[in-house]
TrEMBL record:
Higher taxonomy: Eukaryota, Metazoa, Spiralia, Lophotrochozoa, Mollusca
Subcellular location: Cell membrane
Organism from which the protein derives: Dreissena polymorpha (Zebra mussel)
Gene3D superfamilies named among the record's database cross-references: Rhodopsin 7-helix transmembrane proteins
Protein name (record): G-protein coupled receptors family 1 profile domain-containing protein
Ranges for domain G-protein coupled receptors family 1 profile: 33-284
Keyword Acetylation carried by entry: no
Transmembrane segments: 20-42, 54-72, 92-111, 132-152, 183-204, 230-257
The UniProt record lists the keyword Cell membrane: yes
Gene Ontology terms: cellular component: plasma membrane
One GO molecular-function entry: G protein-coupled receptor activity
SUPFAM superfamilies, sorted: Family A G protein-coupled receptor-like
Membrane topology: Multi-pass membrane protein
Length: 314
């Protein structure tokens, strides 16, 4: 234990041990799983819908977490090179870019599902390929620029406090930048919950209406598909909330009562936030029959996907 500002704070070594355990558990599955999604969607033309493209974009974000962020952070901890200013700032910049883009891309999926379910007849006009590409590009540009700001001067890194354990946002970012990034994440969480809640409400209402009206086989089949989509969305939303809500609650606490103790507590629930990047590919890969079939074909090195599944289930 160490004492600071009147509070007893758990030694950072225990905190880093948990981080490293999570890293080793999710690194390889995250790389392999998201790599499979990227290869599958690029390789097979059948997987070119707006939803699949957005899942591909999310997989790129999560692949950066597994293939770049985690190895860089582990290397810095094990070889004690985080005392170097450039290495430290690059590491925390990777946190902002990779996790920020992952949250933003989940928001894009929420927007796409919202438009597809709430405005089914106008969905293709409202979200064209060009509009979607523009939204994706804007998201990447903003998150990359946001991550680079500390490297280009917006930092409080001090050589007098430079050590492996001091390479934390509270040590190297100024308060304004830190609060801004925290609240961007909070707004993204609120937006995701709001959009998914609306979509779930509309989907349930449509499904219940069709079950009362339609006795045709096609109507029942469509209702079953929509309910499957609904369950998938509930799983996605529930996982996102479970992983990010604790951190967002601490954002509010730290904003109102900023002290070293709460700053340390706030860092702990960031761990399930990183874990979320290792779960997204499982949800979207396992619950989507086309992607699941593509996984098998990629692993077995097959060139085409037979049309054994009649409709893509998002």
């Amino acid at each position: 234990m160490m004492e600071k500002d009147g509070y007893y704070i758990t030694d950072l070594s225990a905190y880093l041990t948990v981080w490293h355990a999570v890293y080793f558990c999710i690194m390889i599955p995250t790389i392999v799983g998201n790599g499979l999604i990227i290869i599958s969607i690029i390789k097979y033309r059948k997987l070119r819908s707006n939803m699949h493209v957005l899942v591909l974009n999310l997989a790129v974000s999560d692949l950066i977490v597994g293939a770049v962020l985690i190895p860089v952070d582990l290397f810095g901890d094990f070889f004690k090179v985080k005392s170097d200013k450039n290495y430290c700032l690059a590491t925390v910049a990777l946190f902002i870019t990779s996790l920020g883009s992952s949250c933003y891309n989940l928001l894009l999926i929420s927007i796409e599902r919202y438009i597809a379910i709430v405005y089914p007849l106008r969905a293709r006009l409202m979200l064209t390929k060009s509009k979607m590409a523009l939204m994706i590009a804007i998201g990447w540009v903003l998150t990359i620029l946001d991550g680079l700001l500390p490297i280009f001067g917006l930092n409080t890194f001090s050589n007098s406090t430079a050590n492996a354990s001091a390479c934390l946002s509270t040590e190297v970012w100024n308060k304004g930048y830190r609060v801004s990034n925290d609240w961007q994440l909070l707004v993204a969480l609120i937006a995701n919950v709001t959009l998914y809640s609306i979509v779930v409400f509309v989907a349930v209402r449509k499904a219940s209406g069709k079950s009362r009206i339609g006795d045709a086989i096609q109507g029942r089949s469509r209702t079953t598909k929509e309910m499957y989509q609904l369950i998938t969305m509930v799983i996605v939303l529930g996982t996102f909330i479970l992983c990010w809500l604790p951190y967002n609650v601490m954002i509010i606490f730290v904003t109102l009562w900023d002290c070293e103790y709460y700053q340390f507590i706030k860092r702990c629930p960031l761990i399930p936030g990183v874990l979320n990047s290792g779960l997204n590919w499982i949800i979207y890969g396992y619950r989507n029959a086309d992607i699941r079939t593509a996984f098998k074909h990629v692993i077995m090195c097959k060139k085409t996907i037979r049309n054994s599944y009649h409709a893509s289930v998002s």
